[in-house]
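quick one before i forget lol
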Amino acid sequence: MAIKIEMLRCFCTVTQTGNLAEAADRLGRTQSAVSMTLKQLEDHLGKKLFEGERKNQLSPLGAQVFDLALRQVRQFDQAVQNIEAAAQAEQGLIRIVSVPSVGALIFPPLLDHMTREFPGVKIELRDTDTQQVLDAIAEDQADIGIASGHHPLNGVRTIPLFQDSFGLVAASDHPLITRTEPLMIADIKTAPFVRNALCDIIQTHAFLSAIESAEITIHNTHSLITLVRNGEWITVLPQTVAQFLPEAVAFRPISDLQDKRQVYLYIRERSRFQDLTEQCSAFILSREFA
């Protein structure tokens, strides 16, 4: 018997819930049906996926299978959504994924432009980190991507969009924001620092030394800004972020930090609605981000 996507979905759901009853309820199936599906998968593999009879601890093989299976289930579900959206998009469908700091700037005017110029067009917008932007483009889950850094992909055009400097982000009344003298990298050591994924772009040795003891990393930009707004925490982000910071949070340049973030536009060379993709890309390229 071949492994089917519903076998993998069943296994992933049982793993996530830790018991058959809750998994069956979530899947809308009977507990015996879920148990039978798991048995079919294990019989096909010839090995157990769980330790013992309870379903709350994976075997070594089960842990490996779970990572692979969960990825495939998510990709399958995304593909189904894309197929259904494409079938309903009589006037066309454009799928765009961007890093949050750029998406917050480009999504509102882009929506206005596309809905005005192409009435009835379906638009899907997502914001996520650079790696997931690249994955979405490479796996044909998006037509256009906006990400930090240059990462060549087969069948994808990569165009420089803009670059911006890094600076300190902290509460508006934080001493490092309100001080009159220029801000330096060495000053970062004087306050608790929270890392984010964009810190990995910075290569200046003094900066890396200054944050090497940072123990907290937050990947979600909204959560990151919320943290620095409510306390003594500081972080470093690109200057474009300053354009949508809340009033209680401020951005300040760091005089001796010269690194810049390079942002690129990724365009699939073949998409179902290529004209829409090109029109949308042209609009993004026409925008001023500085």
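fyi Strands lie at 93-98, 122-127, 144-148, 156-171, 194-195, 216-217, 235-238, 249-253, 260-268.
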